[in-house]
């Protein structure tokens, strides 16, 4: 009933057999759900049965967000060491009408300032009950309900806590991988992973946490190989990178901790993605985001910055030579041209107004003559494209765009932005792109104003 | 609208079929999919009901049963879950408020529910007081969808003063990109869905001054593809739901005329199942209530005859937002 994408409509109705199959599946699914709801009503979060039920139902339906929360509560109430669980103490039971009469589990409700005491396990460590209720045992996951349940010891078992929690995080991450691959656009799966990775940061020594994040980056790259535009994976990537950058690396015996920027390697990553697919705007976008930081970190001087602009413009143009109808390339080209035609502190919207800091530019110290040269050269190159692609409407859009920007740079006496030429490009656009006629009409009015 | 009258039958809006389709959504309990999508039930009621209002059949779903269902999803803390037994979350809380606004039932929330104040507190507590953005629930996932949802619901209840509007606005501005669009978080790629949430949030609090309307309008208008449909990002496929995200955004910056109306009408109408009702993502695909609503809102925004007018900011009928927000609208 909800959001269905890309599934062909069919007019055939189900056969009796298919209907029966559906009813059987529904029965199984609802039984699972009923069992879970029953446990939840009784706040049985520390009962390992509940945890295993969540595994089963999430495999059938990872969009069922409440179950991810139940699963987290199970871990907080049972398997995670008290030290880790304490980080989410208030969340061990949902703040809902259902929980009003129930007590949060012991792990959650008795925060002790002394991390040395751990709650008694709610159940004795029990091996998996294989074949329970005829379902497949969860072979590929370790039994997190057993993790962190070793005998109570003194304060020096922090290491054991860490080891147990680490293996628990590992097992949770492993559990979600097949789900991530099958449902790469499910917000909850991504969210669940980031929850556990953040836990790593909180409980593990920096080096160990780093390993988790690094592995996550590799997984993310794999996800982006499968779907190059998955915006979950791109967002997640930025999240991982920023975590990796803020995780300090400690050398043995060296007290100094150094955070490591990943701007260079991520910038290189966007190039590797673009090489595979020029139309990958997600990669171009990320590249535009990294450019400024890259130059700052390189300590680039004015000459290096100018050279950088040159190189990037050339990269975009190389693409345009083979794909002049590709919006991704034009948007990146436009980003670079904005860098050239915008003046820091200019009164364009969002810059200098409302006390807002002007966003930095790639090459802030270009002289007006330099900037004109850049625009002249690009406009000439783009005009050359017309020889092969006279009907590529994005070429005309770019020419008009840059013509207008050129005028706005001031002191224009050159004929790059010749009015007759502009009107001719506009006429061509109207002819090639009737869908956006209203926009061209507005543009015409502004050009004639 | 003369051209529309000349459209062939399959390009006329199959109003009756759509009404019937929505009415029957809750009678599909023998379909596995019905149970797999229980986590969207409350959203589904909002989508279906709003669609019925646009089709001018507001009575097609029983009002009392709707109120009962909505209130059965509410938790002690004021928030709503997708269905009874599902955890409270911003996404469902917003749907609940929208449904109650639509059917003029805030008084029932006071009488039989936990009251507006509790709902407002649930939402306000999800604001990140440092960055201004909002989480979806206690587990902390943040993005601009939740920020918009918070502004939408709080303003309908007259409770916007519970949150730090300035910080939230700053956060939205930090999500702006060089192409004029907005992403999920600062640094994220522009996406039509997120552009809608950011623009609508700014509209609700009257803080559109930082929007680069021309640049954004260009980007949005380029979403229309030769088949008339709209995509959500550059170099992606068209999909009926973007008829809403892109078009409502164009409406908020007064530029719906930057795309071709009739071409989009044609695309949306070709996605109808004229016999069984409902609208799909693309022609010939399975229909669902989500695409049905966003197909209809797209038609409504462009003035398709016979449909009630939709408010591009709230995704509710204009009659509803005018009743509640009065002259502010």
UniProtKB/TrEMBL annotation, chain A:
Pfam families: PPTA. The keyword Cell wall biogenesis/degradation does not apply. Its EC number is 2.5.1.60. It catalyses: geranylgeranyl diphosphate + L-cysteinyl-[protein] = S-geranylgeranyl-L-cysteinyl-[protein] + diphosphate. Signal peptide: none annotated. Residues 101-128 have a biased composition (Low complexity). Keywords: Prenyltransferase, Repeat, Transferase. One of its GO terms (molecular function) is transferase activity. Residues 1-21, 86-160 are annotated as: Disordered. InterPro entries: Prenyl_trans_a. Catalyzes the transfer of a geranyl-geranyl moiety from geranyl-geranyl pyrophosphate to cysteines occuring in specific C-terminal amino acid sequences. Belongs to the protein prenyltransferase subunit alpha family. This is Geranylgeranyl transferase type-2 subunit alpha.
Automatic annotation (TrEMBL), chain B:
Binds 1 zinc ion per subunit. Keywords: Metal-binding, Prenyltransferase, Repeat, Transferase, Zinc. It catalyses: geranylgeranyl diphosphate + L-cysteinyl-[protein] = S-geranylgeranyl-L-cysteinyl-[protein] + diphosphate. GO terms for molecular function: transferase activity. Its EC number is 2.5.1.60. Gene3D superfamilies: 1.50.10.20. Signal peptide: none annotated. Its cofactor is Zn(2+). Pfam families: Prenyltrans (PF00432). Residues 13-316 form the Prenyltransferase alpha-alpha toroid domain. Belongs to the protein prenyltransferase subunit beta family. PANTHER family: GERANYLGERANYL TRANSFERASE TYPE BETA SUBUNIT (PTHR11774), GERANYLGERANYL TRANSFERASE TYPE-2 SUBUNIT BETA (PTHR11774:SF11). Catalyzes the transfer of a geranylgeranyl moiety from geranylgeranyl diphosphate to both cysteines of proteins with the C-terminal sequence -XXCC, -XCXC and -CCXX. This is Geranylgeranyl transferase type-2 subunit beta.
